Amino acid sequence: MLVVKVPAIYLSILMVSRVIAKENPYNGSFNKLESAIVVSQLVMAQQAEYFKKLISVAKESKNCINLRGSSYECPYPFTQVVDECFYVSKSLLKWEEARQFCQGMGGDLAIPRNLYALKAHLIEIKAPRAVWIGGTYLGPEEGWRWINGASVNEEEWSPKQPSGARKNLANCLNIRRDRHPVLDDVLCGNKLRFVCQYSL
Taking the domains of the chain in order of start, what are their residue ranges? Predict the structure, then answer.
């Protein structure tokens, strides 16, 4: 509930108008009109204060939504997918080249929190079946890792994948829009389109 304080100047006007009304020998329509004007000014002042507070509350609510990350705009040319910002390239590059490209845009190869939201986006924009994302094979000891160091979830691999790791090949991670689960491995020297991610 909003509590609106009436500015002191309007209270002063009301008091002065009451004094004038008492001293004025003509207690007719002039006094009624004057009183009506003062009351109107008070009502308008209250409404103005109320709307100021309402606008302030609305701005604070918007800021809260932004802080939760559920309502913001991704910088161009990135596109918002749930609460993440992605850019799907038009060009074909090797995995390392793709990563360099993404870093040049102020981001990196994608490490999506929700692989299936990204998959849905790739299907919607008719992207190629396979695109690079930010994971690579670091050898038998460390295995498959995202570029932030986190382990790749084994449950997200497509059937019979990863295949290259068994042959100890230098493989990198791609997401397949035509498979479920979605992760696949390909030689890092292959040229694919890729997904960059911008972190807010």
Answer: 8-68, 79-198
Residue 135's closest CA among 78, 69, 184? 184
Among residues 200, 79, 199, 195, the alpha carbon closest in space to that of 134 is found at 195
Cα dihedral value 89, 92, 95, 100, nearest 10? -60
Name the CATH architecture for the domain at 79-198: Roll (3.10)
CA distance 17 to 35: 7
Phi, psi torsion values for 176, nearest 5 degrees: -105, 125
Encode the chain (200 residues) as per-residue pLDDT tens digits. 544 455 555 455 445 455 545 555 555 666 666 776 766 776 677 766 755 665 665 555 544 344 444 557 899 999 999 999 999 999 999 999 999 999 999 999 999 999 999 999 999 999 999 999 999 999 888 999 999 999 999 999 999 898 865 566 779 999 999 999 999 999 999 999 999 999 98
Question: pTM for the full model?
Answer: 0.64
Sign of the C-alpha dihedral, residues 72, 75, 81, 84? Answer: negative
